[in-house]
Design brief:
It is a single chain. The chain is of the alpha/beta class. It folds into two domains: 181 residues, Vaccinia Virus protein VP39 (Rossmann fold), CATH 3.40.50; 90 residues, Helicase, Ruva Protein, domain 3 (Orthogonal Bundle), CATH 1.10.8.480. Strands 4-3-2-5-6-9-7 form a seven-stranded mixed β-sheet, sandwiched between helices. The longest helix is centred in the last third of the chain and has 17 residues. It starts with 32 loop residues before the first strand and ends in a 6-residue tail after the last helix. 37% of the residues are buried. This is rRNA adenine N(6)-methyltransferase. One of its GO terms (biological process) is rRNA methylation. Its EC number is 2.1.1.-. One of its GO terms (molecular function) is RNA binding. InterPro entries: KsgA/Erm, rRNA_Ade_Mease_Trfase_CS, rRNA_Ade_methylase_Trfase_N, rRNA_adenine_dimethylase, SAM-dependent_MTases_sf.
Length: 354
């Protein structure tokens, strides 16, 4: 829900926060209105709006941020709102408003509807859709200039986390591959009505143009393996029995298709469809635990190897890691460039992750 000042009414001792007109908020839908006008103005200022911009707003709520966006002199505001009560409230609020011709309200689920063209996204979103919405925006075409979005603070800190940070995880790596992310504002929970249980942060996301020259399916497959035990060495991770079996299966499949020696980094480009795949990975990407999981994966030692081929394949994998000096490194300390280089070494040796 987008921000602004609201009125709170009590009814019969059991009432909660309500909109003007008596419409109750529904916390289950993430309806927390930003009540501090100074913060709304700060968000508008940091968005860097231009007179030619079409702005996408998600969850406009009572329309306080919507009003400020229109007053900022943009070309148009497209507001996507799920709750029909809020859509009605917006219609009433802007009926007869001198800038109403610049406002278009779409009633629907932002994760399910086709988004129109926009230059910039400015939004205070329901936090439960943070991960799928982020990747839906990054898969949108044509590519927009930037998004300025209010997230739950921990999710925001994962977006901007750097190698070596405690919160650095698969979410950090994947989002930063596709965009430049920066933290703009910390917002305390008391700035909302009703107040959520967590603090928030405003983040700026700028999609990279063009997309990196890498197959996203390959990239995500590698990162999944590496971050399964992000604080273990890559040498230990790639000795795990299930990892070796998976890679060997892919290797043999590619060989049978006569593609193993022909695939090089940059040959297959990342597509919007590849990026959109992540929109369904809410649980494992949004709030991954940073603690190590129980080390229940068995390493495959030489005694586990059946036949010369399997032992040779393990040596091949270890050789690739040693070639790039990765065997003793940890995923939690690797940068985007490191992962891209590692993927290129695997692919050039005919080893694939998808």
């Amino acid at each position: 829900m987008a921000g602004g000042k609201i009125q709170k009414k009590r009814q019969g001792g059991g009432g909660g926060a309500r909109l003007q007109g008596g419409i109750p908020f529904e916390k289950s839908k993430g309806q927390h209105i930003l009540k501090n006008p100074a913060l709304v103005d700060s968000i508008i200022a940091k968005a860097g709006l231009k007179p030619t911009d079409t702005v996408l707003e998600i969850g406009p709520g009572t329309g306080n941020l919507t009003k400020r966006l229109l007053e900022a002199g943009v070309k148009a505001v497209v507001a996507v709102e799920l709750d029909p009560r809020m859509v009605l409230e917006l219609s009433r609020r802007f009926q007869g408003h001198p800038l109403s011709s610049r406002l278009k309200v779409i009633q629907g689920d932002v994760l399910k509807c086709d988004l129109p063209y926009f230059d910039i996204c400015v939004a205070n979103i329901p936090y439960q859709i943070s991960s799928p919405l982020t990747f839906k925006l990054l898969s949108h075409r044509p590519i927009f200039r930037c998004a300025v979005i209010m997230f739950q603070r921990e999710f925001a800190m994962r977006l901007v986390a750097q190698p070596g940070d405690t919160l650095y995880c698969r979410l950090s790596v994947n989002v930063q591959l596709l965009s430049r992310v920066s933290h703009l504002l910390k917002v305390g929970r008391n700035n909302f009505r009703p107040p959520p249980k967590v603090d928030s942060s405003v983040v700026r996301i700028e999609p990279r143009k063009p997309l990196p020259p890498v197959s996203f399916k390959e990239w995500d497959g590698l990162v999944r393996v590496c971050f399964n035990r992000k604080n273990k060495t890559l040498g230990a991770i790639f000795k795990q029995k299930r990892v070796l079996e998976l890679l060997e299966k892919n290797y043999k499949t590619m060989q049978s298709l006569q593609l193993a020696q022909d695939s090089e980094m940059g040959e297959e480009k990342m597509s919007p469809g590849d990026v959109a795949v992540l929109a369904n990975m809410v649980e494992d990407l949004s709030m991954e635990t940073c603690d190590e999981k129980e080390d229940d994966e068995m390493e495959m030692d030489d005694a586990d190897m059946v036949g010369d081929d399997r032992a040779s394949f393990k040596e091949k994998i270890m050789g690739i890691l040693q070639q790039g000096d990765f065997a003793e490194k940890r995923s939690s300390k690797l940068s985007q460039v490191d992962f891209l280089y590692l993927l290129s070494l695997f692919n050039k040796a005919g080893v694939h992750f998808s």
